[in-house]
Amino acid sequence: MTKQDxxxxxxxxxxxxxxxxxxxxxxxxxxVWEGDGPVxxxxxxxxxxxxxxxxxxxxxxxxEDLLKRAERLQIVANMAVGYDNIDVAAAKKRGIxxxxxxxxxxxxxxxxxxxxxxxxxxxLVEANRFLHAGxxxxxxxxxxxxxxxxxxKLGIIGMGRIGEAVAKRAKGFDMSLLYHNRRRNMAAxxxxxxxxxxxxxxxxxxxYVVLLTPLTPQTRELMGAREFSLMKPSSVFINVxxxxxxxxxxxxxxxxxxxxxxxxxxxFQQEPVPVDHxxxxxxxxxxxxxxxxxxxxxxxxxxxxxxxxxVAVLTGREPISPV
Length: 323
Ligand code: GLV
Ligand code: GLV
Hints:
Helices cover about 35% and strands about 15% of the residues. By secondary structure, it is α/β, with parallel strands linked by helices. It folds into two domains: about 10-100 and about 295-315, 3-Layer(aba) Sandwich (Rossmann fold), CATH 3.40.50; about 105-285, 3-Layer(aba) Sandwich (Rossmann fold), CATH 3.40.50. Helix 3 links the parallel strand 3 and strand 4. The longest helix has 19 residues, at about 295-315. The two termini are about 30 Å apart. The relative contact order is 0.14. One glyoxylic acid binds next to loops.
């Protein structure tokens, strides 16, 4: 089939590698939002009217209002593992398949989580700024001293695939492992030796707390003033999930009043986080622009998987990774 007589229309809300577009062009007419940022809402609302498949990003809000215009839409393929940007119930009601990109980003995201843990615990960013500012006058015993990583206790909130991958890395640092999850994950316990416990116990015991849970109504602002107050003054909090899981005002207070020692954040309530956000004014916050899965390898595999899901659904096969 040539492009001209392809019967399906696929809309991509961002530019991705040519290879991905070509794969989709084998079966469909493909249109891509060529702008630098996210596709504007009004454009997306129009484009979805004619689309059979939507290749979407976590920056696109796929809600009832949008889906009700999507008369031909068969699939929303989100190029992310998280899908809190999509009203999945509203899609299902219309028979629209929603897919995400698990597995292919697990190791890259776990690497980033561990990098944040090391950076926040050992003050890498603060120390780097200190050096560049010309403040390094002499070696001294406690210059930029941080918290031990080796042998420390790590608490993982959300023991899914990424949690398990973080736990494996922690074993190399001889860390002891606690985890909290909606339900026990026996397979992860066997592989990592992590011990299941309640959230409060995890917060009280851990030297490092890594938050990896998806954002759902149940996990919205899971971490608030009460939760931070349970943590140790020497503890480090890492968030690689979604900004909505944390009450940022409570986190700020916990850091300023030294209830906790440092934080490493890849995600924020509002993204991009405003540069005058109070959390960014703190030297003990390592802040990153939502780059958990951002390696060339992982992002390419995510895009391929999203495209493969679209090809599968449009050609009448089962989706590879439905949510
Ligand atoms: C990124 O945050 C993702 O959900 O893939
Ligand atoms: C530090 O560089 C040391 O030699 O202990």
